[in-house]
Amino acid sequence: PSHYGERATRFAAMQEPAAGAARRALALDPDNASAHVALGSVHRNRLEWGRAEAEYARALTLDPENAEAHLQYAQLLMDLGRLPHAIEELQRAIELDPGVVVAGRLLAAARLMAGQYEAALAELDRREPSRTGLANLEHWVEASALVALGRFDELRALPVPRASGPYREGETAEALALIRSGDIDALPEEHAHPIILMKFGRADDAAERLLTDFRIDPRLHVGIHWMPLFDPIRDHPAYLQMLREAKLEGVTPERPTP
Question: What is the H or E stretch that residue 181 is in?
């Protein structure tokens, strides 16, 4: 539908102020590593993968110990399914600046995407729970890993990213009860996350939902489809269409050696 294209156009336009600021900084100092990182993130948000990687690579050449550059580059690698390298970059970011709280949460997310579900949960367990917006990411990783492992009785949240504010336990109690009972046919549409659909054998619905969710918010959903859980639908027409729209056609995930 045309409104998907219009949404993408508006989102791309939103990146222009940040792009302009980065370009002005680089005009004054072409070796400004932070400006290259900022411009790389603009390209990443526009799904301009090659241009984003070039900017991050330039930043890391200029300043190899720039923790933010390693962090942002890792997120690009997660988007591209290059998960072993993403994990290495996140570990390097944490080594350089242990105070960058988001890096630990993203490391858990990268392990989730790589199919290291127990390791993802362990990454969360070794860190203090967040009381900020990062709680959303923590709950999403935890819930996704537990669903992938089939440990439904341990679910405290649903793997549905929230726009803002921490997850409030109890607000989706009915949906959680349906998942625990296996009655996902009665699950409200807003809670029918592709991870849940895939785990319960509704592969066609999962593929269609991945495509729909990507179209609604391209930046929010890039990456989750690399999870091994989705391997059986990599040739599904809806999945292939999502890859085309994400400019990832022909890309296959790289995962750590077991």
Answer: helix 173-181
Q: What is the DSSP letter of 231?
A: G
Question: Please, are residues 197 and 209 in contact by the beta-carbon 8 Å criterion?
Answer: yes
> Cβ(74)–Cβ(104) under 8 Å?
no
Which positions ≥6 away from 186 have C-beta within 8 Å?
178
Other CB atoms within 10 A of residue 98 CB: 11
CB 140 within 8 A of CB 124: no
Residues in CB range of 143: below 8 A, 6 or more apart: 155, 156, 157, 158, 159
Q: Which residue has the tokens 């962090």?
A: 71
Residue type at 5 in one-letter notation: G
CA-based nearest residue to 71, from 19, 43, 110, 32: 110
Distance CA 226, CA 168 (A): 28
State both tokens at 239. 């999945």
Q: Could you report the per-residue pLDDT of 13-49, keeping only the tens digit for each?
A: 677 777 788 888 888 888 999 999 999 998 998 889 9
